[in-house]
Amino acid sequence: MAGKPSVPAVITIERHILHEQEAFPDASGALTQLLYNIALAGKLIASHTTRAGLADILGAAGHENVQGEEVQKLDVYAQWVIYQLTDHTGRLAVMASEEEKDIIPIPDKYPKGKYVLLFDPLDGSSHIDFNICGGRILAIYRRKTLSGPGTLEDVLQKGSDIVAAGYLVYGSSTMLVYSAGHGVNGFTLDPSIGEFLLSHPNIRIPETPKYYSANQGYEKYWSDGIRRYTRWLQGEEGAARSLSLRYIGSMVADVHRTLLAGGVFYYPSDTKDPKKPHGKLRLLYEANPMAFVIEQAGGYASTGRGPLRDVEPRELHERTPLFLGNRELVVKAEEFIAKYDR
Ligand code: AFP
After folding, report:
1. Which end of the chain has less Cβ packing within 10 Å, N or C?
2. CB distance 239 to 291 below 8 Å
3. What is the DSSP string of 253-278?
4. First CA to last CA across the chain, in angstroms?
5. How far is it, in rounded angstroms, from Cα 93 to Cα 103?
6. pTM for this one?
7. Quick one: which atom of ligand 1 is closest to the CA of 249?
8. pLDDT, tens digit, for every residue of 223-240?
């Protein structure tokens, strides 16, 4: 074309999602549309999140969620946005959210689709008042039941059944990182045009890890194996190198850094709270989707005793110990646990 400008092609998230669908000529487009809805919800939530200090949405909503944690107003907004953008589309059979005790049915008046959406509407919400970045985590599965309203059976699926998963991170810019099972791509929101643009194509976790990430404030509640593993990461216990520590306490941000810089993020079982013997993170809303992204980028995710993706969920809000990042670092955690924590 005459006069073609010599700038690199701008790839919007829409173009990218459509391009991925081309590999599946029989696809109905439902997954593609669902991913658009999710990107749109991400933009709406991002615009609120970055104005949180100015608007009256800052602060707690005044009640606790199903986990007994205080619900922030932004959590409420984030959940509502996702729900009302997707409930009527005929793409979903059922949803479930970290903030809701039970599954979220699709209203009777709307058609039911073949997918299931699980999400943590605003992860890291307890950090909002401190201007520390949070994010949103989601996973899409195919329904298991054949027709009618989706059920608990459709929601309680293993990580290995995930069709697509990803997260939004609201940091110095807003990014959407997702995988539909063909690698991981990252998109940065250009606020001037309100569009997610491909900024991190085909993300692979770097081979040389840089950081380890865990809440070492809880070390006294950890097992011998976890303490020794942590010392190994610091260059002791026969290790050949030491890693730097980085921990924000907002899983999306900690895992995002692990994905881009290499390293390991872990939240192990601990004895801090007898009601949470498996740590804090939720299998369905946090661990499985983030593990899917990490593994699609060449990493590995484990409970410390084996692959996370094989864990059969038993209840909606169950928690799991989690180790994810560079494969050799996660495998090392499994070795320390097998040796010292019988
Ligand atoms: P909030 O959503 O309540 O802020 O919790 C965030 C989170 O679930 C996850 O994002 C962090 O990795 C983890 O908690 C941090 O927990 P600790 O404060 O116990 O380290």
Report:
1. N
2. no
3. HHHHHHHHH-EEEEE---SS-TT-TT
4. 68
5. 11
6. 0.91
7. 15
8. 999 999 999 999 999 998
Find where tokens 């608007």 sit: 55
Please state, in angstroms and rounded to a whole number, the distance separating the CA atoms of residues 110 and 296.
Answer: 34
Do 231 and 220 meet the contact criterion of CB atoms below 8 Å apart? no
Query: How many other C-beta atoms are found inside a 10 Å radius of the C-beta of residue 80?
Result: 13
Q: Is ligand 1 within 6 A of the CB of residue 126?
A: yes
Residue 65 CB–ligand 1 contact under 6 Å: no
CA 336 to chain centre: 26
| Among candidate residues 183, 77, 152, the one with its CA nearest the CA of residue 121 | 77
280 lines ligand 1 (CB under 6 A): yes
Measured distance CA(232)–CA(241) in Å, rounded: 9
Least confident of 1-5, 73-77, 262-266: 1-5
CA distance 38 to 138: 9
